[in-house]
């Protein structure tokens, strides 16, 4: 076994003979570190990746009691709760042994000990630690993966944005998310956080447009007691709350010039003071900002500081409006219907082809947020297993312009079909087939032009044509 692949065992005992005995017994299978006191043990715990600790209870300078040994046990448990600590005892009574176990010892044995027995305990503890580490890694990975499940869509342009987001999530780079209101900017920010190494630290969101100008500074940086009228207690700001994690600043374009200066300073120095305070506070955060405004134009008009813009715009992700990704509307509608049904204790409905046609034809000025609201309303007002156009608000129906093409997006049901036959999967397939056939017809059979019109790659269009058995 190579030295790099060996797990590390820390032996803490003030008797050199005991340490050497354990060292010689373990060195073939483990990397062994030695410590003769609590101070030396803590130094190793702070600077090394240790898998198992063996610790004598009686350590200098207080060899007459067990306080030093218990201090090592507690320090190891605080540093990493899964870290197994095996305690070496002398002739302590049962109450002492129970106290050691209560404080989190993995196992204990008494002197004099059989070295073979100790090796078995260490091997079991090391395996336990490795499994715990693998479980932690797996939980983190699952948590990171779950962040993308909230983002629904197969649109090619959207998938390219997700690919960029996944890549940047693993870094600490500042991200600027742009797009119209309701396109899912905060959802994307949360997904980036959950896919990042900061997943176990806080995600703190601050909706700047919702705050009065007089409160933004206090909300971001906090204040000391008595800093202004009404400041009866000290309050942490969003920067402090997000320490170690991610701070999401929504509608960053609404900041006043004076707040832009203060934010720029914090982003540059990662330090700030609370209002009314003198202490410099340092934070380790990742900033994700979002806006529905054109910051480049604001910079040109001197409405937004160029240095702050470039500080925020390290990686830019622009979310398209829903009207530019009509192929995702049926998927999103199904997702929101399931979500609303679960929320309100209803069965998940499906949709008639006519309803899907209308959903796709509508322009959705409120984007995904509006679609979710419409679907939740539909689930609430109707208990039917299949929803039709009657569940849509009248204003929405009145605003839909069918356009020059009147052919249905989804093929009508075959003669004799019952409502139960109109499954959602069938509707989606029909919708895709009609959409592609229409594009090919309008482009006179040119797959390249059809792909451009559908805003998908030619390779993806070719695959869909084969999967759906579409004839040019």
Q: Assign the structural class, choosing from mainly alpha, mainly beta, alpha/beta, alpha+beta, or little secondary structure.
A: alpha/beta
What's the tally of helices?
Answer: 19
- The total tally of domains equals 3
CATH top level of the largest domain?
Alpha Beta
* Helix content estimate: 40-55%
Q: Total number of β-strand segments?
A: 14
Q: Alpha-carbon distance between the termini?
A: 62 Å
**Main beta sheet, described?**
5 strands, parallel
Instruction: Please indicate the percent range of residues in DSSP E strands (runs of 2 or more).
Output: 5-15%
Could you tell me the CATH topology label of the largest domain. Rossmann fold
- Name of the CATH homologous superfamily of the largest domain: P-loop containing nucleotide triphosphate hydrolases
**Parts with pLDDT < 50 across at least 5 consecutive residues:** 401-424
Please tell me what the overall shape is. extended
- Whole-angstrom Rg: 31 Å
Strand order of the largest sheet: 2-1-3-4-5
